[in-house]
Amino acid sequence: MKSKLGVTLMILGAMLVIAALSLAVFNIHADREAEKKSMSVLVKLEEEITQRSETNNTNIELNVSHENLNETDTLDAIMVKNKNYIGIIDIPAINIKLPVLSEWNYDNLKIAPCRYSGTIDSSMILAAHNYSGHFGKLKNLILDDEVYFIDVNGKVYEFYVDYIEIIDGNSADKMLAGDWDLSMFTCTFDGTERVTIRCKKNTQ
């Protein structure tokens, strides 16, 4: 009897180990795929931004419908691979430079960071998965680290990290609260909390 129980426990243990390894492999694959997709878009987006800057073509405007976007707000965007992008987020301290999608949903989050709410001129909040190639390194930022956002017309907005907090995953109101020029967030490893970086515009 004990022998059978021991064998059963060993089999269950082996199954758990295999399941854990499978999950780890899946996560690594998803991480790499997301990084490939965002880098591919980044190259095309930078080319479009450069071309638009050189020709001074700033007349293309996209109206984006979103529950956290005021009716009077508009966003300039460039379409790449049938997705609308509003610019590029550049965080030198953690070696991150990524395209930013105009709207967030779960499919978009698999490609690049997304605009969760607001605009670049009105308390913009960006969300991304905690992939190592996306916002997984946000936790390594410290106060006064520089953050740059380049819009689709080539205008560069300079920010610095002013506050870092961990917000409960169910506290959407707290995410939207506060007087911040730019916020970025991603989930913690277990998905229950959000690593949140609050930034102020650099006026120097």
Cα(first) to Cα(last) distance is: 76 Å
Q: Which percent range describes the beta-strand content? A: 25-35%
Structural class determined from secondary elements: alpha+beta
CATH topology: Sortase, Chain: A
Rg estimate, integer Å: 20 Å
H/E element string? HEEEHEEEEHEE
Report the total helices.
3
Approximately how much helix is present in the residues? Answer: 25-40%
Number of strands: 9
User: In the CATH hierarchy, what is the class?
Assistant: Mainly Beta
Rounded mean pLDDT is 81
- By CATH, the architecture is named Beta Barrel
What kind of sheet is the major sheet?
Answer: 9 strands, mixed
CATH superfamily: Sortase
What spatial form do the alpha-carbon principal axes imply? globular
Task: Enumerate the spans where pLDDT stays under 50 for 5 or more consecutive residues.
Answer: 19-26, 57-73
How many domains comprise the coordinates? 1
